[in-house]
Sequence to fold (133 residues):
Amino acid sequence: MTRAEVEAIALALPAAQNVIQWPLYGVWSMKRSLTILTFLVVLPSGAALAGDDCAVPLADWQPRSAVVRLAEENGWVVRRIKIDDGCYEIKGTDREGRRIEVTVDQGTLQVIEIEYKDGDDRRSREGREHKHD
Fold:
């Protein structure tokens, strides 16, 4: 938290406390006011941090052909490749014919998650060693 944010909270606190106390006839404590103000400041910043799963600059992305090669090396039949939350997402089937969705980091081509459409979600280390030019 920056100094300006702290000063803004300190300046806003008496005003917020007056607004909060009025309907409660003075039963609101300074500690509760500080707690609420802290949540109001911290929660929006937490939502901003929950952004994209993959944050690689576009210039560092691996081409789709490398994603197709990764899928072939793992025995996956690709039905569709798309971008989801900043990551490559491969939809297709695995060697056993199960429908899968594979989330792949677009810079390193590391497999982040394999989701089996039969409901069996697994974290996979497969593909983490695969790096393509």
In short: Helices lie at 3-24, 30-49, 64-73. The first helix runs from residue 3 to 24. The chain has two domains: 3-49, 58-122.
